[in-house]
Amino acid sequence: MLKKRYLMTPGPTPVPEDIMLEMARPIIHHRTAQFREIIKSCEEGLKYVLGTQNDVVIFTSSGTGAMEAAVANFLSAKDKAICVMGGKFGERWSEICKAYGVESIDLNVEWGKAVDPASIKNALEKNKDVKAVFTTQCETSTGALNDIQAIGKIVSGSGAILVVDAISSLGACEIMTDEWKVDVVVGGSQKGLMIPPGLSFCSVSEKARQMLATSSLPKYYFNIKKALKSLEKDDTPYTPAVTLMIGLAKALDMIREEGIQEVIKRHRRLANAVRQAMKALGLELLSASPADSVTAVEVPEGIDGAALVKSIKENRGVWFAGGQAQLKGKIFRIATLGFMGDFDVIISISALELALKEAGYEFGVGSGVGAALNALLK
Ligand SMILES: *Cc1c(COP(=O)(O)O)cnc(C)c1O
């Protein structure tokens, strides 16, 4: 049987052919005028996508590398930080803080819910010495979107910096770094930015920059101060992932060409079509404040969620993500993230319908696809 594969996971995501071709060209040296142009172009493109005038440093690592850098470079041992939990990636902030001896005030949020910004306000009022608030924008493990604009209003009035993990929302959901007063935005390459895994980013506001000077936590490779200094000359402290940066420059050109507002609208339109299809199939979303980059759907009663995801993958070649940790087997997640269009949604819903029918779930075949098509017509 023909094995055609469709990657519908929230990272890695499909890479456009034009980008792959760009990355297939012969390697160039990184200490050249030619490569400095690539860095400059990445820098301008990232600022555009993030909506910021702040510098954005680029690291050779998956997204977690820039998360770790954000803790290690802005804080000092025994500092206090508020970490918004609510899923696997929110928990990661707390784990990194603990690994560095930073005292994490864990703000527990029920998985699937967005954080109530007022709870951050309360935590800041109770702990006046908090140095940073760490949160996700899209909590990929639950599909919930946090209200970063509201959180920015609160944190900007305190002495703390706001650090946002936007790894699965950059290039998909709106983020206005400067207008929303976000000090540090962390991003990664393999999601909305349409290139393979291996690059991470970190924007640095003036308030955050001042904390670089006082941070006493150990760091060497992930040194933001050094990276910023090199960036002044469109350079990097160490050999960058040349190939991926060439891919990133191309991806950012594509985003600029489409227009970031159009890119955001496209994601909203696709995610809406998925949500309408789920409704028509009688399936519940996990989150009441769903992100447009990934939709987490509750597995219906009596159906084995892990087996469902496996059968969609093995029998139809379509890769969804399952649930993580306590959501294992309980949800599946469909991404509408990065290089995706109308028919990616139709493929996803079709594959889901086939697998659901085979698993004995009752519904009218085509009702989900029909709802998605109708949503796309509007
Ligand atoms: C993918 C992802 C990460 C980072 O994961 P890496 O595997 O290190 O790239 C972090 N946060 C969120 C919200 C993510 O979706």
Annotation keywords:
Aspartate Aminotransferase, domain 2, alpha/beta, 13 helices, 2 domains, three-stranded antiparallel beta sheet, 378 residues, Aspartate Aminotransferase, domain 1, seven-stranded mixed beta sheet, binds pyridoxal-5'-phosphate
CATH class identity of the largest domain = Alpha Beta
How many DSSP helices? 13
The overall number of domains is 2
Structural class, judged by helices and strands? alpha/beta
Task: Please bin the fraction of helical residues.
Answer: 40-55%
CATH fold assignment of the largest domain? Aspartate Aminotransferase, domain 2
Number of strands: 14
Overview of this protein structure:
It is a single chain. This protein has 378 residues and is α/β, with parallel strands linked by helices. It folds into two domains: 6-12 and 260-377, Aspartate Aminotransferase, domain 1 (Alpha-Beta Complex), CATH 3.90.1150.10; 17-257, Type I PLP-dependent aspartate aminotransferase-like (Major domain) (Aspartate Aminotransferase, domain 2). The chain contains 13 helices and 14 strands. The chain has helices spanning 17-23, 33-50, 63-74, 88-99, 117-126, 148-155, 206-214, 224-231, 242-258, 260-280, 305-316, 342-358, 367-377, and strands at residues 6-7, 55-60, 80-84, 103-107, 130-136, 138-139, 144-145, 161-165, 184-188, 199-204, 294-298, 318-319, 321-322, 331-335. Strands 2-10-9-8-5-3-4 form a seven-stranded mixed beta sheet, with helices on both faces. The chain has a three-stranded antiparallel beta sheet with strand order 11-14-13, covered by helices on one side. Helix 1 packs antiparallel against helix 9, helix 5 runs parallel beside helix 6 (148-155) and helix 12 (342-358) packs antiparallel against helix 13 (367-377). The radius of gyration is 21 Å and the shape is globular. The protein starts with 5 loop residues before the first strand and ends with a helix. Pyridoxal-5'-phosphate (PLP) is lined by residues 10-11, 62-64, 89, 136, 140, 165, 167-168, 188.
